[in-house]
Design a protein that fits this description.
By secondary structure, this protein is an alpha+beta fold. Helices cover about 30% and strands about 40% of the residues. The chain has a single domain (about 5-130), classed as Roll (Nuclear Transport Factor 2, Chain: A). The radius of gyration is 14 Å and the shape is globular. The relative contact order is 0.21.
């Protein structure tokens, strides 16, 4: 798959409520994740391990990527994620984050996730670069 096809596949998996499958397909072994500009985890295994408890505890996941852009020249994709999770307690929680992903060799080598006020701040800027997909 080329980069455009890979990003589209990632969005399909996320929208199907399969975030771990999207992660496994797209994240580089030596990738790094940030949460509001703080290091979240380094390396694919560590990043997945920190996400698994929340994702696996969900009774259901309703994926909702509402916007995605890709700048092929720079290898940067930006996703607006408004996915909802129903937890073990039956309560629904929606996220409203922005993922800025830097790709190399068909894999995400850096992902910056912005949530809460930082996500809203990023949405008010020209963070969405490249072509809409």
């Amino acid at each position: 798959m080329n980069l455009l096809e890979t990003v589209r596949r990632q969005v399909e998996l996320l929208n199907a409520g399969r975030p771990l499958d999207a992660f496994d397909l797209c994240f580089a072994d030596d990738g790094i994740m940030y949460d509001n500009d703080e290091v979240f985890a380094v390396g694919k295994q560590a990043c997945r391990a920190k996400q698994e408890p929340f994702i696996l505890a969900a009774q259901s996941i309703e994926g909702n990527i509402t916007r995605c852009t890709l700048d092929i020249a720079t290898g940067v994709s930006v996703l607006r994620n408004q996915t909802s999770f129903v937890g073990a307690d039956g309560r629904s929680t929606a996220i409203g984050g922005i993922h800025v992903q830097r790709w190399e060799n068909g894999k995400i080598v850096e992902e910056r996730y912005y949530r809460d006020a930082m996500a809203e701040e990023k949405c008010s800027t020209d963070i969405f670069c490249g072509e809409e997909i």
